[in-house]
């Protein structure tokens, strides 16, 4: 099947940092001479002591050791703030858009960012936080989240952000796991018109932590919260007294910058560790190239700082580049489904970066919400987090982008620090649903899953590994280097194993097919569950679908579909038949769904990822052992799915 392609306009390509020829040239150079390429890119960052070594990496199982720029020293907050002050002290660094459109937005200049970051750094120091200490952030999408991240980097402390939607139990596990000294939180977190009692949740978590853990509380709503004088520090009172200067600590390039917990296919979430020099070089370069960021552009990434996307593309990448970055506290549908587009219009956003799940949700609400906003400032659109189905891609392209904005479908992971595969807006003709091309320095290899043999050529599919290292790569799992090696370097020796499957099409472009544990095998045919899902959601009556395999006597695995209908649609036996026929015609008879269950909702993490592990268990009629469900956004959804399961 050939896919339509969408080339950037000649005008956009001519103004872009990278056009097609430049991409080829730079990519070839980055693979042929990684040391030379990354030595040059290292210069985008200000070093205190310049590095002499560039790359020093071993992928040998049992001795995995990743070092970049190892003998250089630097400070990340100085790179994100101080070095811009002389030329752009009065330029807006952060545009903060609150949850409610009735509350005023804030424009925070680089000078103000400097002063507030230093205040926060001094408060933390006074609380006893020093170089190498861990600080957990459990905080809403408010400017203080950025101040806190940058304040940690300023004094050499290691931050670990826990998404404000996580439960007290999850917070406690992360505080204890990193032996944090301080938790930074807020009184309440307004989101979608509702206030989450963050301080109360943090208090609950801290009951399960050492008495020595202190908490620094930012006033967001100003409402009364329980207070413990022995443990709680009032940020607003202390910051008002604190000095607006604080000398940046000199950090080694390989000193840890942050820890970010992420879930894998097994066990408890692991603490992904990123270090200082390589991460900031990579975040800066990818932000500039992937989004074709130019001086004066307004960049908006809708992620939460609780996820890696927020780290790299709300805070570190944009600020390292002296950009203006939008930070949004709210949700796409509050007060209504036009909120994203109103914010784009209001702040004249040039690059807009969001997740397919948000695009699908908004698509389901109809085009009027988009059309009533003036989106003429938009130049580049981006997606991240999961494969995007062509339906949603086309809607994003046509309705949001008006057919004029290249879409960058960025594939990467918490572990990778920044984009590994993505089209570059001025260089590549995109295809709906394809992550297209490797970023500079990234050498993808497609492997035979069972044997680990490299599959050469185009028109092939397999397990996606990366041959060599890149500066933004994670360095270890916090406190468990063995787990790091086992998870990423043991299945396919000598490569970084991504956990994803991928297809390299006839043109050599890459398509992520989903986690390899989501691949199902029906009568000997390998099939991406994403493929079936994409077909299902292409049906006009389907809002969302999740597909898993389940044991089938004859076929090996059968196809089990959870389908959420568009509001107002009736779940009938007839519609079931219609969908089955639909999928057969969209993909082929081998993809014909065996079981279709009507799902009023799908179990998702609070970041919007469908928890397939749970869906597989229910499909296997093995719901007695659902495993860890603590990260579910709406636990009640699961009870309904079990009650109405099809495979009894
Ligand atoms: C950045 C982020 C990583 C996993 C990854 C893959 C999926 C992310 C994707 C994508 C298809 C894309 N994923 N981006 N799949 N196309 N553009 O999301 O990090 O939360 O660690 O998730 O998300 O399966 O392995 P993280």
Please give a structural write-up.
It is an enzyme of class 6 (ligase). Keywords: Acetylation, ATP-binding, Ligase, Magnesium, Metal-binding, Nucleotide-binding. One of its GO terms (molecular function) is acetate-CoA ligase activity. This is Acetyl-coenzyme A synthetase. Its cofactor is Mg(2+). The chain is built from 20 helices and 30 strands. A hairpin with a 3-residue loop joins strand 28 and strand 29. Helix content is 31%, strand content 23%. The longest helix has 17 residues. It is globular, with a radius of gyration of 24 Å. An eight-stranded mixed sheet has the order 12-11-8-6-7-14-15-23, with helices on both faces. Strands 5-4-17-16-18-19-20 form a seven-stranded mixed sheet, sandwiched between helices. It has 648 residues and is of the alpha/beta class. The structure holds ligand 6R9. Ligand 6R9 binds next to helix 11, strand 20, strand 24 and strand 25.
């Amino acid at each position: 099947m050939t896919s339509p392609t969408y080339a950037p306009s000649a005008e956009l390509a001519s103004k872009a940092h990278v056009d097609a020829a430049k991409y080829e040239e730079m990519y070839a150079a980055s693979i042929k001479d990684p040391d030379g390429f990354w030595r040059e890119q290292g210069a985008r960052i200000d070093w205190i002591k310049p590095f002499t070594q560039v790359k020093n990496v071993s992928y040998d199982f049992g001795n995995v050791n990743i070092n970049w720029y190892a003998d250089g020293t630097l400070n990340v907050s100085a790179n994100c703030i101080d070095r811009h002050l002389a030329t752009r002290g009065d330029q807006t660094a952060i545009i903060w858009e609150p949850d409610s459109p009735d509350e005023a937005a804030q424009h925070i200049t680089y000078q103000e960012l400097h002063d507030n970051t230093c205040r926060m750094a001094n408060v933390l120091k006074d609380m006893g936080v020093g170089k190498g200490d861990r600080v957990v952030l459990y905080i809403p999408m408010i400017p203080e989240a950025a101040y806190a991240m940058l304040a940690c980097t300023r004094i050499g402390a290691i931050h670990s952000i826990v998404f404000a939607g996580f439960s007290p139990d999850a917070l406690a596990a992360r505080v204890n796991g990193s032996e944090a000294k301080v938790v930074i939180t807020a009184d309440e977190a307004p989101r979608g018109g509702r206030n989450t009692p963050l301080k109360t949740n943090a208090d609950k978590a801290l009951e399960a932590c050492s008495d020595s853990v202190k908490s620094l509380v930012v006033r967001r709503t100003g409402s009364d919260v329980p207070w413990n004088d022995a443990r709680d520090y009032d940020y607003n009172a202390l910051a008002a007294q604190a000095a607006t200067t604080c000398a940046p600590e000199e950090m080694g390039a390989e000193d840890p910058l942050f820890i970010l917990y992420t879930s894998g296919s097994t066990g408890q979430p692991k603490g992904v560790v990123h270090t200082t020099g390589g991460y900031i070089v990579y975040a800066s370069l990818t932000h500039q190239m992937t989004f074709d960021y130019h001086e004066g552009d307004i960049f908006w990434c809708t992620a939460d700082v609780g996820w890696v996307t927020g780290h790299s593309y709300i805070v570190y990448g944009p600020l390292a580049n002296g950009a203006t970055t939008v930070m949004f506290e709210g949700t796409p549908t509050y007060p209504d489904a036009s909120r994203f587009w109103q914010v784009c219009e209001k702040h004249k956003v040039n690059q807009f970066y969001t997740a397919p799940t948000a695009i699908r949700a908004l698509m389901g609400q109809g085009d009027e919400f988009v059309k009533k906003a003036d989106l003429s400032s938009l130049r580049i659109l981006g997606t991240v987090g999961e494969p995007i189905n062509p339906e949603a891609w086309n809607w994003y392209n046509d309705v949001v982008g008006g057919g004029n904005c290249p879409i960058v479908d960025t594939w990467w992971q918490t572990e990778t620090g920044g984009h590994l595969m993505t089209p570059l807006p001025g260089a590549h003709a995109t295809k709906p649903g394809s992550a297209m091309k490797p970023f500079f320095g990234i050498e993808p290899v497609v492997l035979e899953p069972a044997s680990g043999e490299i599959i050469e050529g185009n028109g092939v599919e397999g397990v996606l590994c990366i041959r060599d290292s890149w500066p933004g790569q994670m360095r270890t799992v916090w406190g468990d280097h063995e787990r790091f090696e086992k998870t990423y370097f043991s299945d396919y020796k000598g490569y970084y194993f991504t956990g994803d499957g991928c297809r390299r099409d006839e043109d050599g472009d890459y398509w992520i097919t989903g986690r390899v544990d989501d691949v199902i095998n029906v009568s000997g045919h390998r099939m991406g569950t994403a493929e079936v899902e994409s077909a299902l959601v292409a049906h006009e009556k389907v809002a969302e679908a999740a597909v898993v395999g389940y044991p089938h006597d004859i076929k090996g695995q059968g196809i089990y579909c959870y389908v959420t209908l568009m509001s107002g649609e009736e779940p009938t036996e007839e519609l079931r038949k219609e969908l089955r026929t639909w999928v057969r015609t969209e993909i082929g008879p081998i993809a014909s769904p065996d079981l279709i269950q009507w799902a009023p909702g799908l179990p998702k993490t609070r970041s919007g990822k469908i928890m397939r592990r749970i869906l597989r268990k229910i499909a296997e009629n093995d719901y007695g052992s659902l495993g860890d469900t603590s990260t579910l956004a709406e636990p009640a959804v699961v009870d309904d799915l079990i009650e109405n399961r099809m495979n009894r």
